[in-house]
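In keeping with the milestone schedule agreed at the kick-off meeting, the structural modelling team has produced records for the first pair of proteins. Each record is given below as a sequence line and a structure-token line. The laboratory manager (R.T.) confirmed that both were archived under the project's standard naming scheme.
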Amino acid sequence: MSQEPLPEIRPDIPHGARIWNYWLGGKDNYAADREIADAVSATFPEIVDMAFTSRRFLNRAVRYLAGEAGIRQFLDVGTGLPTMQNTHEVAQSVAPDARIVYVDNDPLVLAHARALLVNTTPEGVTKYIDADYHEPDRILEQAREILDFSWPIAVMFMGVFGYVPDYDVARSIISRVVEAVPSGSYLALWEGTSTSEAVIRGVQAQAELGSPYQLRTVEEVRGWFAGTELVEPGLVPLTQWRPDDLDVSRAEPIDAYAGVARKP
């Protein structure tokens, strides 16, 4: 796939990927992002823990998918800025022949992806698609150039739908992608939930600064798994999805729910 020129980066407009990068201690963010991030964390300090626990969930989910579930193809939609232990690094450490396609449309993410989201094994494949998750057909068309849709694929949406106000729009995006992958594929996702007054106040502060974020109820998140079979332990707080030795001491509930499910 050819590398087209990068679109303009707008440092004056806050962006979710860069806000999360700041909470994770990264340097790929601007004043507009930091202003919102600081306002939210002042109201809801747990957001920083949520940022880190979401990455640990991604790592555990990918290890499960590449290991126990035997998945060799991953479609990670709404990638965000690269951090330590990205999807391809985890998957290819378990299965060297794993093929990973990242999808995002932020120009800063794209610039970093070209430099950092590179293959870690000779057998594997790591590619990046510049696309908006509101365009699932475009994503699928380009992903078919890299992934074999006659074999199972793990579809991943990691905390991306808080920036989609309409619940049914998010559901239709998920459904369109999951419908396109074969039986035996998996859906892995997490999303922020309206499970405490503190998190609700945090997103209100974020919205007041021009970056609205839509929390979901636990049952709304469960609805996104319709037509799939949740693997144990089901839909649970991020910290409680198969915690490993590093995470077991931090398994208290958090205002974000996660699950991994198999397509029958």
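The second protein of the pair:
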Amino acid sequence: MKTAAFQNSRLEAILFNTLNGFFMLFLVIVTLYPFLHTLTVSFNEGNDTLRGGLYLWPRMWSLQNYRAIFISGTIYHAAWISVARTVALTVLGVFLTSMLAYTLAQPHYLFRKIIGVFFVLTMYFNAGLIPNYFLIKQLGLLNSFWVYILPGMVSAFNLIVIRTYIKSLPGSLIESAKIDGAGDFTIFLRIIFPLCTPVLATIALFIAVGSWNSWFDTFLYASSNIKLSTLQYEMMKLLGSTMSSNSDPALLNGVNTGQSKGMVTPASVRAAITIVTAVPILLVYPFLQRFFVVGLNLGSVKE
């Protein structure tokens, strides 16, 4: 009986692992195919792309799509602005949000509930685009680099996530530090902040991705200052020019070698733009992946 039960259990395990392996392989294919197809289109000659039938390998290799993007000198400066705003907002946002979350997580702080409710309300109610624009104008942030930083430094959602994580830490850590004479800022900087690495890495990834992909704030608040243009905004304008009915869909920004292999199309340029804007995040994500997985599991286990 034991031998038969053992064999049945082993057969079930093999069957489960096999089905699970095929299912995970299917998910990998479904997940990766759109990106690989976009990569293929970006390296394929634009005029040939119109024929269709491209899957995972270019029929006619060409770098003309990427040349069409980087032919403008503003792209490089815009990329620098995007990097600068992403790094600055991520660093300041993580530090200031975590410091505020630590304050609101202290049971002896008198106004923690009132301030917490105030931040939660901002997640449900918004004044609207026009009042927000006038607020930014009255603060003197129009056509200023700080318009990318100050409005988004503290997020209510990120605040709640970090505060929840800090509340899960043992209170004895803070009590023992205070007995030793440490102040609140010292406790936060030397004890709480290092212990919050998983959740802070997760929040940092959220902030970085949102800041890197943002272009609408540039359109609203800094479109008249070319020195503050971001990579995504320049890519949006470039893509808009290829989709315009007034432009030749086979040419872009005067890129023309006189041969069909020198032509680009909206589809091919769109694919190249997608790859250019996605690669930096893809390079950063592997370093934060293990923290990101831990951060997503926050609050799943209660003790």
